[in-house]
Amino acid sequence: MSISHPRRDSVLQQGGIAVIVDTQDARLIEEAKKLLHVLGDTSENPQYILYFGKRGVELKTPKHINHNGQRVDFSTIDMRVGAGNLSKKQPLPKAIGDYKSIIDATAGFGMDAARLAMMGYQVVAIEQSPIISAMLRDGLWRADQIPEVKRTIGNRLRFIETNSIEYLQQISKVEAVYIDPMFPPKRKKSALPPGHIQALQRIVGYDTPKQTQALFDAALQSTTGRVVIKRPTHAPAVARNPVAVHEGKLVRYEVYRPTENSK
Predict the structure, then answer these.
(1) Which of 29, 62, 86, 149 is the one with CA 20 to 30 A from 242?
(2) pLDDT, tens digit (0-9, with 9 covering 90-100), for 145-196
(3) How far is the C-alpha of 263 from the C-alpha of 257, rounded, in Å?
(4) Is 18 inside a domain boundary?
(5) Is the pTM of this model over 0.90?
(6) What is the pLDDT of residue 81?
(7) Number of structural domains in the chain
(8) Sheet of 48-53: strands edge to edge?
């Protein structure tokens, strides 16, 4: 397992995160030790704090250390079959189609991966940030303690902490790959995204066009079915001749097949 260098503008490059352990839970203590082994000495003046406590692994700011923080919580997903975010009429599942095995190459906080698993897809989600990965593992563990959530996910979701390109290059062919790059705002003065997305951007940084293209190329080489890539509506297509485009209000999902686009 490898951990790649952080993306551009990541707070990891600035030493902007600290780890606080406020629990006797052996699982969380071990998770914190693993993270500290990767991060080394954490910041004395952090922008964010990864807090290991009674609510699990939470991302907090120093000003709100005594308040609940952001955490991965799959129990917040509307789990009614065919409703809302679990409807296969949504643009993302329409873009994936009938393929059942998916690699989510850019897991982030894992909500897309969890929704896909709840819809019946078999999902392997990849995240390279050790900070976000600790939150993902905790979120999946807590989901496993809630019978309804555990039953709905149904052992169809697995998180792996590694570099997506390296992973794709090493595995056998897969049915479908989903890519959701962390793209910067359209304008510097654009309204800030919701809190959890803003935090994710500060920790993992933005993906440059070159990084997105490299991951897209690796995905095309590894799939037998299709690559689905999420793009903001104002951005150009990642490649020529997508076989389908599924539009949402703010984003679109471009679909590519390896026969048309891989070398």
Answers:
(1) 86
(2) 999 999 999 999 999 999 999 999 999 889 999 999 987 666 554 444 446 6
(3) 12
(4) no
(5) no
(6) 67
(7) 1
(8) 17-21, 48-53, 56-60
Q: Which one, of 50, 32, 39, 51, lies nearest residue 15 by Cα?
A: 39
The tens digit of pLDDT for each residue in 47-92 reads 889 999 999 999 998 899 999 999 999 999 988 766 566 888 899 9
Question: CA 218, CA 250: separation in Å to the nearest integer?
Answer: 26
* Residue 146, domain member (yes or no): yes
Q: The domain spanning residue 169 has which CATH number? A: 3.40.50.150
Q: Where are the alpha helices (DSSP H) in the chain?
A: 11-14, 26-39, 91-96, 111-118, 130-144, 147-153, 164-170, 195-204, 209-222, 258-261
**How far is Cα 80 from Cα 196, in angstroms, rounded to an integer?**
24
With respect to residue 38, please indicate whether it lies within any of the assigned structural domains. no
Predicted pLDDT at 148: 95
pLDDT by residue (tens digit) across 128-158? 999 999 999 999 999 999 999 999 999 999 9
Residue 201 near residue 247 (C-beta atoms within 8 A): no
Q: Which amino acid is at 250?
A: L
By the 8 A CB rule, do 227 and 208 touch? Answer: no
Q: How far apart are CA 164 and CA 176, in angstroms?
A: 14
